[in-house]
Amino acid sequence: MRITSLGHSAFLLEGRDRVLIDPFLTGNPMASTTADKVDCDIICVTHGHGDHLGDAVNIARRTGAVVASIIEMSEWLEKTGVKSVGFNMGGTATIRNTKITMVPAFHSSSIGAPGLEFSAAMAVGMVVDSGKVVYHAGDTCVFGDMKLIGELYKPDVALLPIGGFFTMDPRQAAMATGLINPKIAIPMHYGTWPPIEQDPKEFEKLAKKSSKAKIVILKPGEHLEV
Ligand code: NI
Ligand code: MN
User: Fold this and answer.
1) Over the stretch 89-110, which tens digit does the pLDDT of each residue have?
2) How many angstroms is it from 46 CA to the middle of ligand 2?
3) Which CATH superfamily is domain 2-220 in?
4) Closest ligand to 109 CA?
5) Which pTM was predicted?
């Protein structure tokens, strides 16, 4: 599988299928591509905030990709005319040749412009098995049940927010890496705007103490073969 960082929390996994996660490209100062160029079979959306739902609707309309999300968001997505699979935490959806399991995240979720938002149920994480197992934690603080996610799904790769302010910071993300015990951890959701400026090397230093994981720092546009 090839894992490409597209900036912020947006990643493209190219395994048995091409899975795009949290495709925030338009308006993303870190984006390495644009919404009209990216191609995929499946889109995973962890929650409704603009920096995660992002361009999902437009990309799904253009490509015909199926969007995987929590059930309430899926019902909204269907109204926009895209194909969507709505499920919930603990559940696994099989789309094409990929299994996607929804797992908890501690965060809020809404859809809409400022002042016009409506609740979009809960924020979640996604464990995507498309040849290799990749856990995208979405936006979350650290929580002890990350250990269960690690034991149940044995992720090859964990994508973990480190920006602080809205999510885990490097110290929490290092603790999360120890709980999840992935082979590889990749930091995300930092450096996009001033409140989430962080040095990924700080995460790397702390995670090396709390886990055996290899830490891979991907700049937007860079990829890793696993
Ligand atoms: Ni968020
Ligand atoms: Mn976010």
Assistant:
1) 999 999 999 999 999 999 999 9
2) 9
3) Ribonuclease Z/Hydroxyacylglutathione hydrolase-like (3.60.15.10)
4) 1
5) 0.98
